[in-house]
Specification:
Blueprint: H1 13-32, H2 35-45, H3 49-65, H4 67-76, H5 79-97, H6 103-132, H7 137-145, H8 147-179, H9 181-187, H10 198-207, H11 227-243, H12 245-256, H13 261-287, H14 293-310, H15 317-338, H16 341-346, H17 351-380, H18 384-432
Helix pairs in contact: 1-6, 1-7, 1-8, 1-9, 2-3, 2-8, 2-12, 3-6, 3-17, 4-5, 4-6, 4-17, 5-6, 5-8, 5-9, 6-7, 7-13, 8-13, 11-17, 11-18, 12-13, 12-18, 13-15, 14-15, 14-18, 17-18
C-alpha cells in the first residue's frame, strides 16, 4: 500500500520555487555563458573551433547522461542531499579548471565535473517544483526556470568584466566560488511529508512498526514501452542538437561582424531578457489552458527553427539583435513547457523516471550538435553554417512533437471508453455471481 504526497499548491512551495530559481541561474546560466570563454580558450591553446567546443559539449553530454543517475539518487535519498552534492561538484569543477593545466584538464573539470554537478542540481530542482504543484505547475516551473534568464542577464557583462580584469582563469575561480551557493539552495529543498489514508494507517498499526517504513520508489525503465515517450525522446535528441549551438556561436558570429566584445556580452543580456519573457508568457498560457502544452510546443519549436535559418542574413548589430531576440523569445517559450509536458505523457507518478530518460537520450543531440557545428564552421570558414544546422534540427524535432500530441490526444479520447468498458465488465461479472 503506497503512501501519497499531497502537493500543497503554495505555502512553502514558493520557497522551493525561489530556491529552484537560484539553482537554474547558478547552473544553466553559467553553462549558457560558456561562449564568452570560447575565443580566449581557443587562442590560449591554439586549437581548432571544433576542438574548443568539446569543452562545452562534454559538459552538456554529462549533464544529460547523468540524468537517470540523478533521478535514481533523488528517489533513493532526497532532492536536498543530491542538490548539495551537485553544488560541491560544480564549484570544484570551476575551481580546478582555473589551474589551467591543459586542454584535456578543462575537458575533465569544466566538462565532466561541471556537467555532473549541474545534473545533480538541475534534475532534483525540477522534480521538487513538479511535486509541490499541480494546478499552478506551469507557472511555477516558468518562474523557477526564469532564474536561468535573470542570471544570464547579470552574468554576461559580469563574466566579460571578470575575463578582462582577471583573465579567463581568474574568472573561473570566482564563478566556482559563486556556485557554492547551490549548497544553500539545496538545504532549502524540504521534502514533502507522506500522508496516509485511514485505511493505510489501520493496516500499518496491525502489521507493526516495520510497516511504517515508507516504500522505496524505483526508477521506471518500463516507460520506454510508451510510443509517446519514444517519439518525445526523438524530439529531445534533435532539439538538443540545435539547443546548444546558438549560445556557443552567437558571440563569435557577432565578433566576426566586427562588433565589440562588450556589445556581444550586452547582446547576450538582451537575449536573456527575451528568454525570460518567453518563459513567463508560455507558462501563463499553459496555466490558463489557452492551448494544449504539446500543441503550443509544436508551434514554438517550428518558429524557432525558421528564425535560426534566417538569423545569418544579419550583417549589422541591430538586425542581429532583432533576430537573436526573437530566437531567445521562442527559446524561452520552448523551455517553459518542454519539461512539464512530460507529465502529460507519463503522468506525475512517472515524471522523475521520465525526466531522467528524456535527459539521458537528449545527451546524444547535446554531444553531437556543438562539435558538428564547429566542424561545419571550420570547413566553410563561416559561422552561418552553425545556425543553419541548428534551424534544421529544430524543424525536424517539431515533427516528432506533433506526432506525440496526436497520440496523447487519441489516448485521452479513448480513456473514457476503456473505463466504461471496464465498469460494464465488472457489472456483468457481479450479476453472474
Amino acid at each position: 500500500m503506497k503512501s501519497s504526497r499531497t502537493p500543497p499548491e503554495g505555502g512553502y512551495g514558493w520557497v522551493v520555487v525561489m530556491s529552484a530559481f537560484f539553482i537554474m541561474g547558478l547552473t544553466a546560466a553559467v553553462l549558457k555563458n560558456f561562449g564568452l570563454f570560447f575565443l580566449d580558450i581557443q587562442s590560449h591553446f591554439g586549437v581548432l573551433t571544433s576542438t574548443t567546443s568539446l569543452v562545452t559539449s562534454t559538459a552538456i553530454a554529462i549533464f544529460h547522461l547523468g540524468a537517470p543517475v540523478a533521478s535514481v539518487l533523488t528517489l533513493q535519498f532526497s532532492q536536498r542531499v543530491v542538490i548539495i552534492v551537485g553544488g560541491l561538484l560544480s564549484a570544484s569543477g570551476m575551481l580546478l579548471a582555473s589551474l589551467d593545466l591543459s586542454l584535456p584538464w578543462l575537458y575533465f573539470t569544466m566538462g565532466i565535473l561541471q556537467g555532473t554537478g549541474i545534473c545533480l542540481s538541475w534534475i532534483p530542482a525540477n522534480s521538487m517544483v513538479s511535486h509541490y504543484f499541480v494546478r499552478w505547475r506551469p507557472i511555477a516551473y516558468a518562474i523557477a526556470s526564469s532564474g536561468e534568464c535573470v542570471f544570464a542577464v547579470l552574468f554576461s557583462p559580469f563574466f566579460q568584466w571578470l575575463i578582462e580584469k582577471f583573465g579567463w582563469q581568474g574568472a573561473l575561480l570566482i564563478i566556482g566560488g559563486l556556485q557554492l551557493n547551490l549548497c544553500v539552495c539545496g538545504a532549502l529543498m524540504r521534502p514533502l511529508e507522506a500522508t496516509q489514508s485511514p485505511l493505510q494507517k489501520t493496516k500499518y498499526n496491525l502489521e507493526g512498526d516495520a510497516a511504517m517504513l515508507p516504500p522505496k520508489r524505483i526508477f521506471q525503465f518500463s516507460l520506454m514501452r510508451k510510443p509517446e515517450l519514444l517519439l518525445y525522446i526523438l524530439f529531445a535528441i534533435f532539439a538538443a542538437a540545435g539547443f546548444f549551438i546558438p549560445p556557443l556561436f552567437l558571440v563569435p558570429f557577432a565578433n566576426s561582424l566586427g562588433m565589440d566584445k562588450y556589445w556581444s556580452a550586452f547582446t547576450l543580456s538582451i537575449l536573456a531578457l527575451a528568454d525570460l519573457v518567453g518563459r513567463l508568457l508560455f507558462g501563463w498560457m499553459a496555466n490558463m489552458k489557452l492551448g494544449r502544452n504539446l500543441q503550443l510546443l509544436t508551434i514554438a519549436v517550428t518558429l524557432l527553427g525558421v528564425v535560426l535559418l534566417l538569423l545569418p542574413i544579419s550583417h549589422n548589430y541591430w538586425t542581429l539583435l532583432a533576430f537573436a531576440s526573437l530566437y531567445a523569445l521562442l527559446f524561452g517559450c520552448v523551455v517553459a513547457i518542454h519539461v512539464t509536458s512530460i507529465v502529460d505523457i507519463v503522468s506525475l507518478e512517472g515524471f522523475d523516471s521520465g525526466l531522467g530518460l528524456f535527459m539521458l537520450f537528449r545527451s546524444i543531440g547535446g554531444f553531437i550538435g556543438p562539435p558538428a557545428a564547429g566542424w561545419l564552421v571550420d570547413q566553410t570558414n563561416n559561422y552561418s553554417a552553425a545556425f543553419y544546422l541548428s534551424g534544421i534540427c529544430f524543424i525536424l524535432s517539431a515533427v516528432f512533437v506533433a506526432l506525440v500530441d496526436h497520440l496523447v490526444q487519441r489516448r485521452t479520447l479513448m480513456e473514457p471508453e476503456v473505463q466504461q468498458a471496464i465498469i460494464q465488465d465488472n457489472s456483468e461479472a457481479g450479476k453472474v455471481q
